[in-house]
Structures are given as C-alpha cells and as structure tokens.
Queue: 3 jobs
Job 1
Amino acid sequence: AAAQTTNFLRNIIDAELANGKFAQRGWAGQPGEGSLHDAAAPDPARIRTRFPPEPNGYLHVGHAKSICLNFGLARDYGGVCHMRFDDTNPEKEDQEYVDSILDAIKWLGFSWDANGTHHQYQASDYFDFMYHAAELLIERGMAYIDQQTADEMRANRGTLTEAGKNSPWRDRPVEENLRLFREMKDGKHAEGSMILRAKIDMGSPNINLRDPAIYRIRFAEHHNTGNKWCIYPMYTFAHPIEDALERITHSICTLEFEDQRPFYDWLLGQLRDAGMFSEPLPRQIEFARLNLTYVITSKRKLMQLVNEKHVEGWDDPRMPTIVGLRRRGYTPEAIQLFCERIGVSKGDSWIDYSILEGALRDDLDEKAPRGMAVLDPLKLKLTNWNALFGTGHTEPCSAPVHPHHEAMGVREFNLTPEVWIEREDFQEVPEKGFRRLFPENMARLKYGYVIKCTGCEKDADGNVTVVLAEIVPNTKSGTPGADSVKVKGVITWVSASEGAPAEIRLYDRLFTEAQPDAGGRNFLDVINPNAKRVIQTWIEPGLTNATAGTSFQFERHGYFVADRKDHGQSGKLVFNRTTTLKDSWGK
Ligand code: ATP
Ligand code: MG
Ligand code: MG
C-alpha cells in the first residue's frame, strides 16, 4: 500500500482496536428478516466501512475522496469496504448511474471483492427489514402515524430558537398506529395523507430530533423492488439500519450529517433494546467534504451543466466527474495521491486546484512518454538543404522516449527541408532577451542541427508566412561536433512532410471564480467561455500510433492524452491537454 498520511480517523480506529472494541462482533438479527451474515459466526473482517452513493448521477472528485478514505481504511486495517447503493428513493435512480459508479470505483483502483463474490449491497434489499424495524418502534410506543398536512407539520416543527408543538396525533394508541401503518403499506391511503414519525422530543434543541419522519407514502415503481412497495423509508431512518445490518463499524460521512448523529444513535439504541441489533453498534463519524477551487461538487448542479448543454456530457473533460477527469487525462494514481496529500479532517476548507494538478504532474512526469508537437505552426525552410545533403535526403534523428528511463527506448524521426516550428519562436525584430530565431541568430532544432536564421517571407498584410534558415554543418545533436557551436535557444519542431496533423483540445478551468457557487452566486453566471479551445496542430510521426487513452508529455507544452472517444475515429487524431507543465493557477 502507498504511504499513508495519518488522519484523525486512523487514530480513532487504532484506539478502538487497541481496547478490543470489536473483538466480540457478532450479529443479532433474525434470520429471514434480511440477515446478511450468520448470526453465530464471528466477523472475519477487522473493520467494515462502506461507500454508499445514491445512484442518481455520476461520481465526482468529492466522491473520490470518500472512496479513497473508505476503501483505503478497509485495505489498511484488514477490513472490508461495502459497495452499497443507497437506493431508497424510487424516483431518481437509474441503471446507467449504477454502472458508471461501479466502473469509476474499479478504475480508481479499488475493489469491493472481499471474498471473491463482488457482492454489491443495496439498501432496497432491506425494505422488509426496515418495515419490520418501523413496526417494532410503533410497538414500543416510539413512532406514530401523523395526519397533519405538510404545512401544519412545518409550522409545528418550530425554529432554532422556538420549540416545536406536539402533533394532535402524537398520542394515538399503539394498536391504531399499527393498523394505519399496515394500511399505508397496503395502499389504502393517498400520498401525503399521513406519515410515520419517530416519537422523540418536539422540544429538542436539535430539530432533527423533533419527531422526524421515517416512512412516507409514494406510489412509485422502484428499479429493484418494482411495485412491491408504496411506502418508502426516509434516508435518515434507512441509513443506520443499513449500517447495522451489514455490521459496519465506521459509518463515515460528511459534516452536514453531524446533526443527524443523535438520531442515528437513538434509532440504533431503540432497535438494540428491541433485540434486533447488538453492540458494538456502528459509529457515525463525520469528516470535511472536499471543496476544490474552480470546481463544483454537487450532483444536482453537475446535472444542470449537462442537461442545459453548458458542457458536452458527463464525461466532458472540463467536468470534475471521474469520467470527465479520466477523459481529461487524469490517472487513478494521481487522484489517489491527491487524496493522500489533502488528508482528512473535521474542518471545512477549500483545497486549491493546483494540488490536484501537482499530484497529476508528479505521477505523469515519471510515466508519460515524450513527444514533440507544434501547437501554433509556422513553416521553417532550410535553404541550404540540397547543397548540403542533396535532393530528396531525409536526416534521421532520435530522442529518448523518457529522459530518465532509458529502458523506455528511443524515438526515431527524420529532419526534412521544411519543418513546423512554433510561431512564438521567431521574432523579426527580437525583443530584449529573446534567444530563439531572428535574422542572423542561431538556435538548435532539438535533437537536430544548429540553424542560422536568414530572414522570413510575408504575405500582403505583413504577416510572417515562412521563416528561412540555414543548417550549420557538423552540429548535429549526439555527434562530436554538437558542441562546436554554442547556442542559447532550443526549438521544438515537427517535419512538415512526415509529421501528422492532429486536433488538440486545450482545456482550462470551467469557472472564472474560485468558489463558483459561494455566497448565493449562480454558478452559471461564472462559466468560463474559453474553457475549451480547439486548435489544429502537427505532431511527431510516431505519435500517430498512440492508442486512445494514452498520456504523453509534449515537450515544453504539457501533458496530453489521446481522447478516449474521438481519437482514431475516421482517421482523426485527437488529443486533450490534461495540464500545462507548470502551475498556471492562481496567478
Ligand atoms: P451530492 O451532494 O453531490 O448529490 P451526495 O453526498 O448526495 O452528493 P451520495 O451519492 O450520497 O452523494 O454520496 C456518496 C458518498 O460520497 C457519501 O458518503 C458522501 O458523504 C460522499 N461525498 C459526496 N460528496 C462529497 C465531497 N464533496 N467530499 C467528500 N465526500 C463526498
Ligand atoms: Mg446523498
Ligand atoms: Mg449531498
């Protein structure tokens, strides 16, 4: 396993393991009521965590933090991380999302294959069990059917400074509650006509304990259970039960659930006292969600970007989704490294996007094969070519695939009488300090010869169309004469006759503000219109063999990836700029 930054969660787990908290872990659920484990068998896993997305959208970089955390803890402590779909909400869920979530987790390098089964947990598999738990609460006098209207319930909930008011239905007899709840289940009552609430304390300073709703009527088909149910549990009721059923030890969630923890503990305590679960019960622990500058991490808002066509889909390389990052050229290793570097804490903060890019550069610098590409092409003619080499000659050149890893091999390409260079590498009248091509100056064509600029050609508007230069004989890189002439400028180039045209998509941050949705700002108002720019370029001939999804460093320009979707389609070569070589953020 990779080196781990310590975090407060590891300290908690270390202490619990040291005092034997989990030594006696068994499961007290009743067989046939959604039991997952043999109650008598001790749990072979030292700890259990879970990653519980709702399958209602694509995962984003914030989820990656949660994935690295939960799967990483399980990996490092000899535990298991459950892949669980929190699919208690029948309306918004879809198989497309389920598939993409599983793909994203595998791609990130994690597996939920604890014992060769690749078991996926689904909250909806426990609906019977949850229903039973609700009846137990009713029987214990801890839940009641409320028939107030939604407006009345809202009005009676009170405020932060004012206690709530008891519902007139709060003291219904147990028998009547049970009868009505069963009628709800049997479809005898209309949506919104009644609701099951926990009976806790309308005067609690924590509004979440003011008799929270736990079951509601919804005549909706569910992707797993079909039309079996017309009542569905609320998330806050379902989640603790899911955790306890699966013998989760650490239920790690984001800080906004801190106020829910008392209800989590209340509910599991009730069900323990009713004999349904036994100690040690799962423990909810909150951590700070990832906020990344220039990025939005809300599924709803990302969905809006897609649906309103501000981007070209969930996997648009400008998107912070896992599929978007992947298409942009991010690697799983870079994302894991990023998550390690930012660590886990209890305090909300903003992480600078440059930390994500830094992790990416650190990963790609060691791995990515090198190549040359000219992004803003200007023709250069070598006017003494025929005199020096004869007509039709091409001059073989070579370069390392990676400057530090000889084993990665050597690239071969030819120097030819006409090459493409970057427009910015020529200045007819050089500014102070300019070291590349200007009349009478010498510079090196990288991996080739020193050349001496002799002038340029222009069109009718005075734009430079061709740069003219002469090869300085006996100065080829890698030959004894290479150092005979000293030059200060080195220029990247691509042969005009042997290089290949390629489309390059230059991506930039999607928003012009570091906190696009902060302080009530509409994030749609700060979309960066220049976040995608498409240019026509020339690339080194060997790069035409690139397979889709492969990353390269284009020397001096940055990291690029052959687009997973469009590269190689109808003969077109398409690369995405993943990031520049140096940090260009925040400046
Ligand atoms: P969103 O608010 O974007 O819809 P969510 O929290 O509702 O996200 P879920 O599918 O419920 O999405 O999330 C699955 C898990 O990922 C949860 O445990 C949640 O805590 C975690 N998670 C979601 N967003 C972030 C984030 N920005 N940083 C860290 N963890 C996150
Ligand atoms: Mg959620
Ligand atoms: Mg959320």
Job 2
Amino acid sequence: PYDVLVVGGGPAGASAAIYAARKGIRTGIVADRFGGQILDTAAIENFISVNRTEGPKLAANLEEHVKDYNVDVMNLQTAKRLEKKDLVEIELENGAVLKSKTVILSTGARWRNIGVPGEAEFRNKGVAYCPHCDGPLFEGKDIAVVGGGNSGVEAAIDLAGIVKHVTVLEYNSELKADSVLQERLRSLKNVTVITNAQTKEITGTNNVNGITYTDRVSGDEKHIELAGVFVQIGLVPNTDWLGNAVERNKFGEIIVDKRGATNVPGVFAAGDCTDSAYKQIIISMGSGATASLSAFDYLVRN
Ligand code: FAD
C-alpha cells in the first residue's frame, strides 16, 4: 500500500505529493487531469514571487517538480469511490482499487457556467470567473457581473474599485446576497443593478464587447456594451463521488480542521474541494502542504 495517496493533481495535490515524497515515504498521486483549473487560466499574476506566468506553464512546472521526486503519478485516472477499512481504499473508474494508509483529497472545484453562447468562446477574452485574479485586467473599463448572490455582490463591490462601471445582472426579482453587502453595493456610484435579467448571450468579435439579456418582466431583449463579464453563479466542489464517505457541508465542500483533517481518520483534504475560506492557487498549495504534514504526523503516531 501507499503511505500517502493524493487524489487530485492541481496545485493542492502537487504540493501535498511533494511534501510527502520529501519525507521519503511511499507516495502516489491520481488525477483525472494533472494541472487542474490552472490549465484553463491565461495570465497568473498573484502567485507570489512569480511576477507573471501562464496557467499551462505553471501546470507544466508543477508536474516537473513532482516528477523530481519518487512519486507514482497516475494521470488521466478518475477516482469514483472512497472506503475506509483497515487501509483507505480508492476505487478508480477503470476498476482498479488503490490502497493507502492515508489519503489526501484535493479534487478541486469548477465554476458553474451560465451556458449561453459566447461564454466558452470568450473565456479568458473578457469572460472571467475570479475577481481577485482578473479584476486588474479591466481597469477603467465597463464590465458586468452575472449573479447577485454573496459571491456576485462581493465581486461587484471589489471590481467597482478598479473598473469604470459595473452592471450586476440577477435572474431573480431581487438580489440574494446578505443585506449588508447589498447596502454597500447600492452606496457605490458606479454600480447598476438589474434584476429579472436572464442572460442570453455574451457578444464579441475577438474579445467580449457586450452582453444581451432578456428582461423577464417585459420580455424585451436588451444589450449592454462592455469589455468584460464576470460569471459568479457558484463554485462547485468536485466531491460528489465521495457520497457520505467523508463529511461535507451544504455546498458539498469537504469539512477540514486547521490541520486539513476530515472526520475520517487518515483522510485529509486540501484546496478548493474543502471549506477553506478563499480559493486561490497560493492558498491551495499551502493547504496541500498542511494536509501532507498532517498525514505524515498521523503515520508516525499510528
Ligand atoms: P484544482 O486546480 O481544481 O485541481 C483539482 C484536481 O483534481 C485536478 O487535477 C482534477 O483533474 C482532479 N480531480 C477532480 N476530480 C477527480 C477525481 N474524481 N479523481 C481524480 N482526480 C480528480 N487562482 C489564483 O490564485 N490566481 C489566478 O490568477 C487564478 N485564475 C483563475 C482563472 C480561472 C479561469 C480559474 C478557473 C481559476 C483561477 N484561479 C486562480 C483559481 C485556482 O485555479 C484554484 O484556486 C486552484 O487551481 C485550486 O487548486 P486545487 O488543487 O485545489 O484544485
């Protein structure tokens, strides 16, 4: 069996695998797509000490760093079941069952898409999902935020300090964000809120140039010219496959303590699949290191 088996090959998993391998223990990493979300990212400018890089380049760097160590890398493999017996068992889609004394779950998350024409086409060309990451790219420009929940309204408040103007488009008749956030939003002069707005299309040529929505009350179709659209309708953790094997919160995030431990002894978790406060590369890597050191500590004690 492995001493540490990491499930997920994004920043969190890569970091966990390296920290484990550096202890000289038997380490494996299973990933359905090594690199994770950063493979879909254009510029990365907030990975501290690296002024600017591109997602696919950082993913290649991660893989190279992991391969510097004695780690079994099982790429293009998807885990479908976890069971805690004497050891922890991970069953893969291909039917194989991997056994390990400890497991670190780092299966990440994915942004929920609106699913309208233009969204995929203009991804990284005006369509963005992360205000902390991409906000500065839209300095002085007009943008829209789709989604009026907490994350949408927080994004709009944040972006209003950087961009020229923010239009918030909410599908329902009112915003769902906490009232303090709504008050803060409404106090900002460069924000317009449009409710009952069903996004129909993100338009553009090479880059985004506007958004079209239907007013759900009048039925009229409207178009706004702008340079960017932030989609903020939810971040979904890749944890469905766990079922009830590990405790998760109502958003599906794996509940971890400050050491990255889950409710199951020997099972740890890190990164965007957990209930961590913020979802960023640098935070995922830190939590991967934490979970890995905790797994090592667990092995020493058991
Ligand atoms: P992920 O990167 O999601 O990796 C999850 C890994 O688990 C993948 O390898 C995946 O294939 C694998 N996996 C999932 N399910 C299974 C399964 N069942 N079995 C096996 N493997 C599985 N953050 C920043 O800090 N700066 C930025 O500029 C930035 N820009 C972003 C731009 C975009 C478009 C997106 C989508 C995200 C951006 N982020 C950015 C966020 C950042 O990418 C994430 O916070 C980070 O990748 C999370 O790392 P992770 O390892 O927890 O998960």
Job 3
Amino acid sequence: DDDDLMKPRPPVVTIMGHVDHGKTSLLDAIRNTRVTAGEAGGITQHIAAYQVDHKGQSITFIDTPGHAAFTDMRERGANITDIVILVVAADDGVKQQTADSIVCARQAGVPLVVAINKIDLEASDPNKVMTELTQYDILTEDLGGDVLTSQISAKEGTNLDDLLNKIMLQAEIQDLKANYDRNAEAFVVEAKVEVGLGTVATSLVKKGTLKIGDIFAAGETYGKVRTLISTDGKTRLKEVGPSTPVRIVGFEGIPAAGDSLIVVDDEQTARTLAESR
Ligand code: GTP
Ligand code: NA
Ligand code: MG
C-alpha cells in the first residue's frame, strides 16, 4: 500500500486469560456501558465482534476470548489482533491459561495490556499478580516496566475508563493505519445461515472499504455484497472501512471462520479464485 494513502484505523483487541478470571464479564461491562447502539435481542448472542466508542475514537473487540480461538485464527494466517488484553483475577493470580495466553500473544507478536480484575474482592492481591508476571518477562508500569496495566473490577465497573485509555495509548504507540481507498479485504469471524437472509458472515474489514455491490471471493465460495448490517443488527450500512466488524449478506455458499474475503473486479475472477482453493 502507498504510504500516502494510509490513514489511522481503530485497534482490534482480543481478550484472553485463565478460565473464570472475568473475560466475558469485562466484555459485558464494556458493552453495557459503551456500545452506543445497545443490545439487540436474539441477534446479539451471535455477535462475535463489536465496536465501541471511547472519547470519540473506536475500539474493535473480537469476542473470541478463549485462547484456542485466538491460536486457531493465528494459524490460519489471519493476523487481525493488534492488542491482547490479558485478564488476570487478582484473587487467583497467574494460572496455566494465563501463561498460555502470554505465549500465544508473544508468538503472534501482539503486545499485551494487563487487566488485573476482581479488585473488589477482599482476597485480591494486585501486587502479587504483578510479581508473578515478572516470571514471564512482563514488567508492568508499577514495577518500572512499560507494560500498560489497569486494576479493574468488571463486576463493579471500576477503572474501565482507565483500561480503555490504556488500550488507546497502546494503539497510539503502534500507529495503526490502513488504506481506506482500495478494494476491501476482510476476515470472516463467523458465518451461518439465517432465516430470511441466507448466509450471514460476521466479518472484520482489514483493508480498504467494503461497499454494497462489491464482488468478492471468500474461501471456497464467492458472492456480491447485497446487504451490510451493523453487528448489533440495527443499522443497514452503505460501506464499512478498516477494523470495522460487519454482518455481510450476499454469499453463494457458506464461508468458514478464518477465511479471507477479497473484493475483485468481476464475478468470473471471484469464481476462479473460489474454485482454486
Ligand atoms: P470463561 O469464559 O469460562 O473462561 O470465564 P471468563 O474469564 O469469561 O469469566 P466470567 O466473566 O465468566 O467470570 C467468572 C466469574 O467471575 C463469574 O462468576 C463472574 O461474576 C465473576 N467475576 C468476573 N469479574 C469479576 C469482578 O470484577 N469481581 C468479582 N467479585 N467477580 C467477578
Ligand atoms: Na466463566
Ligand atoms: Mg467467558
């Protein structure tokens, strides 16, 4: 991509950590308090990616909190995560899946922001967590390092603003940019058939701008963008830019999670690409 055409894009954030340390609670807390569009009944249960606004800037969260999903996406060569939030419960400390998450993020070359959760609990010991993390070469700010860290309670909504600020700060450091003005490339997060719509693929646009009428190949299938729906199911969109999750309608078949969706110039090219996979 031409450097001149690169413009800032929102960070794509994946939440990881040990079982029951509060990954989903954190997502819920952020979603409840930040998502402008609010909840949308049955459809929201299937959302795998969503975007929130923080101080006029967008942050995209991928709702695949398990590290298995993250590894799977990485193995498919889809380097879509910019930042990992490592959730560690302050009453439990660093556990097996915490360590796995650290390794996973490191192998993918994705920087961490640490969220020490459950600080509302009597038994919480944030300092112990920070000390344990040093064994994995993670030196938090409090210990003189440069790993951004927030002490939060997902349950009580404590310090979520601080965490979101740190995500934005980490994103600034990474200077995330994309070319908005080219044929789109997207990553399929989840695809399924819905009554009345046919195949709906929740996807994340990586590069370019995806528009109604765009012809594309996606994995072993292809199609033409008929409808673009916001991930809360409420808004029909004309186009979506980089780092934005969207529900796409218009597939001939059903793509797989992890497939790349690539916009091409004509249907023949799309078919040929799909058949060559
Ligand atoms: P898995 O997806 O099963 O790995 O768990 P998770 O990491 O998503 O944790 P989840 O959000 O399901 O929370 C696990 C438990 O911890 C639930 O009972 C939550 O209510 C509780 N919990 C989460 N955050 C907090 C917190 O900040 N404080 C307290 N006291 N409890 C919390
Ligand atoms: Na849980
Ligand atoms: Mg969970």
